[in-house]
Amino acid sequence: MNKPDITKWQSYFKDIGLRDDLIEAYLPFIKQCLTQEIPPIFERNHLSLLVGRSNDDLMAMAFGTQSFYREFRLKKRSGGYRKIRAPYPSLLEVQQWINDYILKSANLPNCATGFREGYSIIDNAKMHCGRDELLKVDVKDFFPTINFSRVIKVFLNFGYPSDVSFILSRLCTLNGELPQGAASSPMLSNIICNDMDRRMVKLCKSHRLRYTRYADDIAISGKNIPKGVARLFFEIIESEGFGINEKKIRFLKKGERKIVTGLDITTGSPRVTRKFRRDIQRDVYFVWSAGLSSHVARRRIFAPNYVDHLEGRVQFWASVEPENRQMQRTLDRIRIIRAVHGSTTAIG
């Protein structure tokens, strides 16, 4: 948004004939919003205009939220499945507006590396390279733990009226909790974890440690992580209303293989894991040498746009290890595959 300009609002209010007492009541709120670079929202009808939905449609989304979601399961790397609740396009667009115009304006610490522009899993992993010891902690049921009352506080802290904050919170929650598939959930979780992150960073600095959090994935590293300090980290997490998945706590010492947000940092710089590297080289080699049809038939692959999938994996490898010779050879092969198959990459 542009630099706060209250005079334009004053002129607009006078043009529409708004009473002077109401103008004086509105201006401090507007100034606060513009200073934070968020849009002023006066009431629910105003919100419906801003998001481009009728008031009836918006209220249906807010008070009949379950009808605007579908559920599916994603397989976890550690085994089992994670339930994902994804909003239908109408609600998704509203949540995206809330995310882009309100939530992204929040001031977050650098240790929060997930779901933010200019940050990636590579940045997260780099923070812990060259450190002798690593403590990994997984927050249990991260998104469902964040309930409606915590979400509404976010919008109230932005300065929005209680009725507007209530509607915004209803649009961003499902059954009183934060759904993992909502467009607004990642940034809301980052904002709600702000106090926890700052407390963790303060404790780390006093012990010459580093802390990052990528959603529910917490990493702490340093030359030495005393056990007593580790217990203090757990106490902070729990005091902030979160649980700890004790089965996923990992304490790794010097010389042990260290994986942070899926990247191997054992050598002192982020690399894709050995398994990732082996699998993508194998798949690309067989498509390159034996042809797409032969490979997908032998491996019983039914995914559409399989070459796009392969290329995306190689490009990810390139973003992590741009100088890796094996990656460059694999990238050359995927370019040959792309030249042969063009944009027609679906399995037929």
Automatic annotation (TrEMBL):
<dbReference type="Pfam" id="PF00078">
    <property type="entry name" value="RVT_1"/>
</dbReference>
<dbReference type="InterPro" id="IPR043128">
    <property type="entry name" value="Rev_trsase/Diguanyl_cyclase"/>
</dbReference>
<keyword id="KW-0548">Nucleotidyltransferase</keyword>
<dbReference type="InterPro" id="IPR043502">
    <property type="entry name" value="DNA/RNA_pol_sf"/>
</dbReference>
<dbReference type="InterPro" id="IPR051083">
    <property type="entry name" value="GrpII_Intron_Splice-Mob/Def"/>
</dbReference>
<dbReference type="InterPro" id="IPR000477">
    <property type="entry name" value="RT_dom"/>
</dbReference>
<feature type="domain" description="Reverse transcriptase">
    <location>
        <begin position="1"/>
        <end position="265"/>
    </location>
</feature>
<protein>
    <recommendedName>
        <fullName>RNA-directed DNA polymerase</fullName>
        <ecNumber>2.7.7.49</ecNumber>
    </recommendedName>
</protein>
<keyword id="KW-0479">Metal-binding</keyword>
<keyword id="KW-0808">Transferase</keyword>
<keyword id="KW-0051">Antiviral defense</keyword>
<dbReference type="InterPro" id="IPR000123">
    <property type="entry name" value="Reverse_transcriptase_msDNA"/>
</dbReference>
<dbReference type="GO" id="GO:0003964">
    <property type="term" value="F:RNA-directed DNA polymerase activity"/>
</dbReference>
<keyword id="KW-0695">RNA-directed DNA polymerase</keyword>
<keyword id="KW-0460">Magnesium</keyword>
<comment type="similarity">
    <text>Belongs to the bacterial reverse transcriptase family.</text>
</comment>
